[in-house]
Amino acid sequence: MKNEALATVLVAENTALKSKVLQLETLVKFYEEQFRLSKKRQFGQSSEKTEYDQHRLDMDDSQPDENIRPAEEPALERVKEHSRKKRTRKDSLPEDLPVEEIVCELPPEEQACPKCGSDMHIMGRKNQRDELVVIPAKVMIRRYVTCTYACRECAQSSDHATIRSAHAPKPVITGSYASPGSVAYAA
104-108, 115-119, 132-136: which range is least confident on average? Predict the structure, then answer.
């Protein structure tokens, strides 16, 4: 009798353990699938490609459809040539404002020719940019002009002259008329 009770208890415990093992195996499969999906989301392809080959259509092409005709090539036509206008600034500064011209020259030590050492002369000037300067109760234009230098000695003694240009200070906002003072005034 004792053995039968023990056997019944063991069978019940065995059934409960088998049920628990089945439940845990199902849970492990679920977590493995979640882990696989997580890795695919993190490291997998990020495009919208599918597992199916979209370029290969399973259509029966053995018999051509009579209603489908190949597209006709469009006729080419000649177009008259044209020239474009040079782009100009739409906005400009008023002409009646006073102009302060700042000439940007090379420092005296850089005005010597690097090849022969003789003094270089100004061979041209170029308007680099204009900026609108706002002084409270006073508005004016500050024009930066850069000087370009050439060596006369090199030009006379060889087939080319040494040329150097001074650099203007960089603007606060590239391509605008704003000066540092006008930007500070507007802010």
Answer: 132-136
